[in-house]
Records
---
Amino acid sequence: PAHDPGTYRWLPEASTPVDPDRVQQLLAAEWERFTSTTGASGEHNVRASRTLPLGVTSSFQHWDPYPVSIQSARGAWLTDVDGRRLLDLSMGFGAMLVGHLNPVVVEHVERALHETGTLFVTPSPQATEMSERFCRRFGLDMLRFTNSGTESLMYAIRVARAYTHRKAIVKIEGGYHGGYDGLQVSVKPALADIGPADAPVGDVPFDVEAGTVHVVAYNDLPMLERVLAEHGSYIAAMVVEPVIENLAIVLPDEGYLAGVRALCDQHGVVLIFDEVKTGLTAGPAGAAQRLGVQPDLITLAKSIGGGLPLAAFGGRREVMQVVVDGRMAHFGTYNGSPLVMAAARAVDEI
């Protein structure tokens, strides 16, 4: 199938496989070069591992023999503890979309630190203004702020359950959506544990209490149609990144997301787009508007906060009404704090 016309990808008509032996030679040479230039990072990891599990603050940051430790950053450049200047090709998975220490973000945040305040735990004009700006930008009726993508996905699912009076969810096999239990199913499962490709079995880690979760393959409408036909009356929500970013970068086929939208409508399932990573990186209004398919709920994080911890969930007024009337309570001491709202306004202006 053709890629969605809202995306772009070019592939050569033919390619020559790389010699596996050559790959191993290159890897060995690169690891030798890595260890010969990152001694201070190795020493820092030994120290950090005494108090931080694996010596890191998030498990994905760890790799063998040890990760690079960064001591400062500016613009698109990082400086590690060995004094090397490194081009940042990740930018925090898009969280640093506007750059490290962007002067506009710094200006707004400094003003909040010196003149406004860091935390009120009350309603504020700053949070109201940013809710209005984000609703305009992303085409939402209402939203609530949170502090992480995990929080936003958790609450979006709870909104969907309160709205539909159903409990089960559907997610994409291999898809990652933060640390909420129900979304830990089949994140990066071993092939031996997940059954046949045309009827996958959800892989649930032992530490997870997932509830009922159905997994389907991305870009496979017939599989989703089968699952909804059999279980649709029990399914509250389908969660999907409109562009999959945990399995490399996987683009939607032409018509796929529109088909997902139609199937969810047919079965009364709340469609949740996880735009934690694609929120601003896929375009100034996110992937949903670029691809022309509007979900019921969208979760946002990373790029909207300019490097400060900010996230949000929001969508159609009818669905978000469950927060208004108390069917689903949403709490959070730091939600919409004026310090983070200052950074969000800077990013929105940029």
---
Amino acid sequence: RKYFRDIQNKYQLLLESTNLLADGNLDAPIDGDLGIFNPMKEEIQKIQKGFKKAVEEEVKSERMKTELITNMSHDLKTPLTAIITYVDLLKLEKDEEKRKEYIQILEKKSLRLKVLIEDLFEISKATSQTVILNKMDVDVVNLFKQVKLELDSRFEEAKLSFRCTWPEELICELDSQKTYRIFENLLVNISKYAMHGTRVYTKVCREDNEAVIQLLNVSAAEITVKAEDLTERFVRGDVSRNTE
């Protein structure tokens, strides 16, 4: 009878813990020795950790969505406000040279708005998983060199010198257009945000049958964003969003 009561009490403790978990209390401790129920105690603790991680990820995801909408609204409003302003100026301006200047600015701002909208459309497709990959054999080294060459004028302007390490070729099955875009995004970010007059280290290599691309540069401004957030969509070290 004593042994049975002991098992009953331990079972009751276990039941209370599962009820707390079911009620959403993910921090409820499971104290004491549960005897034959100890393996179940360990499994419940694993479930607690799993639920907590899932909740944290969901909260983070919702926060990032809110920030994305706020940031995109800000970025879309900037060229749109300029377009409205210059259209109003154009209506009143009589000087032909000034009118030409305003038209050039309008064209520039319109193209900027078009790029932002296309980027947003791409993000929407990626999120809904409707992106189609046209895979083919691609030389990663050659593609990376091509992107870097096309951006050389930006690097010269920023006085960035490159130190590159890569094999003669490295063939992978990839969508060449989208891989080009990835390389372009990474290298354009370096040209925008690297400290002028510093070195940039790039490395392309094969590790465990995978192609690995590494880029290392010195940030022009101190980065205050959390490391785990820095690679999220639309997150920037420049939290004030004063740069492009």
